Amino acid sequence: MQQKGIGITITQHILNQQRENPEATGAFTTLLTELLVAGKVISREVNKAGLVDILGDTGKINVQDEEVQKLDLFANQVIIQRMQHIGQLCCMGSEEDPELIRIPSDYPKGNYILLFDPLDGSSNIDVNISIGTIFGIYRIKDSDHKGNPTIKDVLQPGIEQVAAGYFIYGSSTIMVYTTGKGTGVHGFTLFPSVGEFLLSHKDIRIPSRGKIYSVNESYVHYWDNKTKALIEYFKTRDKETSRPYTARYVGSLVADFHRNLLKGGIFMYPADQKDPKKPTGKLRLMVEANPLAMVAREAGGYASDGHGPILDISPTALHQRVPLYIGSKEDVLLAESFISGKRS
Ligand code: P6P
């Protein structure tokens, strides 16, 4: 009887994509392959966090004024140290670092820019809720700058990403990514016994409309009336439009996004008056919204700041925050109609 294969590894999938891309030089393949190693190392530490004393905070505060958990720091270091020596990047940007991360002078530079949130949802680390790594990859526009890139080289609209995706460290570790241009969104599950990510979710398509809404409703008194009306809409009984929706909110963006990507639904982090320093909400454009917006769009969904596509926003700062409505296209367009005032 023929031995059942282990299926397609992500490495094979990336090489297949490279073969289909005539101008591919293998640089991108090298980049993604090394990112996979970083994901495996982080996955191992996340999964044994309960056993090893790396829980709890470091006492440090990051650029977002958030307590840095030891695993945050570890994940950040793993990605930086693994990715800086492969000769494919000219710089990096991390949610944990206020400034651009330069490639040390003794390492070769490349034409790609990696922006990432090393461990999103970190407040859930010690309660064993799924957390994740989010990444977006750009190509520097002027390769003459790759020796000394500036923030201007990095602040590109999300539509310019050449790839984007995330690792979700949960009951299993799954890597979901897309290289855009209609290549689809694919998910690969890590088989620790094999040490490989194997294709488990081929060509993910998000339902055009869902039945799930995800938002932290404890902030209702910090929202404006349009936002309140939108959330009320999802809670209102209406047989014709299959409402109310079901509320699901984990408090870990990658976990909430991944569930809605597979099942359909909308995740919302509206602008709020909770923190005067963050009037446009908590989530970051460059390392959270843009990568997930590319995945959503490539899977047939949509991501908006409430007025237009996330991917069209011209960034003004590495850590700028943005309201985020992301998921099933019809649900996000409806959210946009409420927030932009076209509908009440
Ligand atoms: P709140 C985690 O800290 C995070 O950045 C996202 O993963 C998550 O969606 C959001 O914050 C939760 O924020 O304000 O609802 O606790």
Plain-language structure description:
The protein has 344 residues and is of the alpha+beta class. The chain has two domains: 10-201, Fructose-1,6-Bisphosphatase, Chain A, domain 1, CATH 3.30.540; 212-339, D-Maltodextrin-Binding Protein, domain 2. Helices cover 28% and strands 22% of the residues. The chain contains eight helices and 15 strands. The protein has helices at residues 10-20, 27-48, 70-83, 151-154, 225-235, 253-263, 285-298, 329-339; strands spanning 57-61, 67-69, 89-94, 101-102, 112-120, 131-139, 163-169, 173-178, 185-191, 196-201, 212-214, 246-247, 266-269, 302-304, 324-327. It has an eight-stranded mixed beta sheet with strand order 4-3-5-6-7-8-9-10, with helices on both faces. A five-stranded mixed beta sheet has the order 12-11-13-15-14, sandwiched between helices. β9 (185-191) and β10 (196-201) form a beta hairpin. α2 packs antiparallel against α3 (70-83) and α5 runs antiparallel to α8. The radius of gyration is 20 Å and the shape is globular. The model has no long low-confidence stretch (mean pLDDT 92). The protein binds 6-O-phosphono-alpha-D-fructofuranose (P6P).
Ligands present? 6-O-phosphono-alpha-D-fructofuranose
Q: Give the rounded overall mean pLDDT.
A: 92
N→C terminal distance: 62 Å
Q: What's the level 1 CATH class of the largest domain? A: Alpha Beta
